[in-house]
Amino acid sequence: MIEVFVLIIVKPGNEDVVYEKLSKLPQVKEVYKVYGEYDIIIRVEVENIKGLDEFHDNVLRRINEIEMTETLIASSYGS
């Protein structure tokens, strides 16, 4: 299982729309609206890198209200 955090910039005024779309997805475990450079942060769980590729290409890129994403893969380093 791979856990990732996706930082999302949304087209202005569409934060609630994107929040609702993301909160309904089974891969998305947590969704937060945040202040700062990014508008939304999500925690995603997928089986493997291929699953992450599919989530990115088939889900995130199809939400027109999203302008940009940055994906951070969680590490077990130091555990």
TrEMBL record:
Origin: domain of life: Archaea
InterPro entries (alphabetical): Dimeric_a/b-barrel (IPR011008), Tscrpt_reg_AsnC/Lrp_C (IPR019887)
Domain called Transcription regulator AsnC/Lrp ligand binding: residue spans: 6-74
One of the Pfam families matching this protein, by short name: AsnC_trans_reg
SUPFAM superfamilies on file: Dimeric alpha+beta barrel (SSF54909)
The protein's name in its UniProt record: Putative transcription regulator, Lrp/AsnC family
Source organism per UniProt: Thermococcus sibiricus
Taxonomic lineage from the root: Archaea, Methanobacteriati, Methanobacteriota, Thermococci, Thermococcales
